[in-house]
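If you are new to this repository, start here. Below is one unmodified record pulled from the training split, so you can see the exact layout before writing a loader.
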Amino acid sequence: MKRLVVISNRVSVPKAAGAAGAQGGLAVALNSALREHRGIWFGWSGQETEEFTGHLDMQRNDDVTTATIDLEPQDVEEYYNGYANRTLWPLFHYRIDLTEYDRNFGEGYERVNERFADSVSPLIEPDDLVWIHDYHLLPLGSMLRRRGIKNRIGLFLHTPWPPTRLLTSLPFHERLVSSMLECDVIGFQTTEWLESFLHYVQKEMGLKVGLDNTIEYNGRKVLARAFPIGVDYEEFTEASRGAEAQEAYERLKSSVRGRKIMIGVDRLDYSKGLGERFESFGRYLGDHPDNAGDVVLLQIAPPSRGDVASYQQIREDLERKTGHINGAHADVGFVPIRYVNRGYPRAQLAGFYRAADIGLVTPLRDGMNLVAKEYIAAQDPENPGVLILSQFAGAAHQLKDALLINPHSIEHVSEAIERALTMPLAERKKRHEKLLASVREQDVIRWREDFVNALAAKTPAAASEVATPA
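And here is the target side for that same chain:
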């Protein structure tokens, strides 16, 4: 069995026995793969150092080896806060108005990717499979090739891939994509993002794409394919039935005193459509004054990227909208929006999801969105809640029996809230049964196995073997 080397911006160190529930589903799946393949997980430690030394901190936990490096403050500012999160992230989420083009950002991004390549190359053995993750490390495969790494290299992008006309606004866009094509397998969340990428390489680079989605580049064939990610279904459903989840369920239910509950769980990010979500709920309250005291929106939004100005503005905007809506519709014993700026362990979130009558997942653009799938997995099949899902989330390609909405239309979302609150039990159960089947069958284990199998293959998968989202 080939060894697996996972490379990502940050590394999730396996928790001690009994604490695994605190990890995200992706971390659980990757750690499982690393244990199975005797692998190494390499990335940034999250710590800063005055001067970069390349020192590797090697640890072994739960049969998984992790290797991390510290970065200089300038690295973090230019590579992470700069190019990754002020250039690529907004561009990949179609927010060209927020995209910043700064030469120093680009130089920092290249420099940190070179440092990753220098540090991880000595760890890679001849038969290893190398799996690179996400937009932070798009040129890394090319840099590994320049250091003599001939191994099979895969790259998986967790974000959307933008249309060609947006991507061409990025300086040196062709050089960035050319570096990605040094990998053997390039994976995307959905066929939509895959098709955008294939359109770019054909129209802008003049490359030939086969019927099996292989790209001919410099005498090699590169497989591009959709690998829709899922949740760890077994782990999450088990957590949703545990004592910690039950306590969270009862605590939330008792606090609303018989009212209906809507829940949103999102990192504090402009791509999540939180402002539009709050406005839509405000519209619902205004359009249904007789029901205004019967439903509560619990929005959990842990802060992220606090050093980036646009994220500070989001928080201020949401606090203002929360105050406005609550001021207009609250009563002495009732506040319609509970806006919480903190995270919760996965088991507690499972309990909150199970307690909620509506899952409100309304990103303006999202690579996949696992909250939607977690909400489905946590429901009571005999009395399930209703998922309201943005048509612009990658998950909408699979979860077609959710109430699909346009998050830019507050009227559309308001109407969906009313429909969800009044939906008969029989319809709720029928929809949930179909949604649950998709979440169960296309889980994170299948995603991981599909990608690793494609990467391990000596020849690209045939067209009939290429999986597309259901």
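Two things worth knowing about this chain: The chain has two domains: 4-230+444-460, 240-441. The first helix runs from residue 25 to 36.
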